[in-house]
Input
Amino acid sequence: MTRPPTAAQRRVVDAADPVTGRLRGTAAQLAALVGRGLAFRHPRPPHDHFLTPAGHRLRETPARPPAAAGTPTRTDTRAEPDGVFAARVGGEEAVGTGPARAREVHSAWQGLLELRRMTNPDGATDRPCGWERAHLVRAAALALEAAGQPPEGPDSPGYRVRGTPQPEAVAVHAPAGEPLRACAATLERAGWQVGEYTDPRGRTRYLLASPRRV
Output
């Protein structure tokens, strides 16, 4: 289990630039945040440090007071094991809703756009970056959720994002018609190449989406 940031590290995160996520702190603090996946060091001079999507998410989460001795602490199950924001891929049994979730999703999407700007060679924000190509299902799901598309739930239809055997491609399932077309339009605006196909076994329509490179 990843240890939570220290109070000093949390202050550095909270003081990050609200738009760019740029960080100020000691070399040790910044290196520790990088090690926790909350920040990254820009590869080009002056090699400033910026929040990752996980760092943006932490900043949006109110700091909790220290637990009393002997009081168990609860692990946030909405985060993936590596600490990256967990977008809804569809089919989750229990999910939270409301303003808090909306703020969390917005913060994660803004952090991802900043990650694109800082890591794409030309600074482009209109196409996916390397992190998204390494986390295809999460990235596509975040684009859909941030645009307000409803995920599939226990009592409601919606999108489902799943991996495929094809390199750099995910399958997106949604009710045929307008919901499926809306998912396609959302992913295209987010910089993905999208095609619509028919499952030869179930004869259902689905999307195949890949991160656009140019």
Remarks:
- The chain has two domains: 1-62+93-125, 126-214.
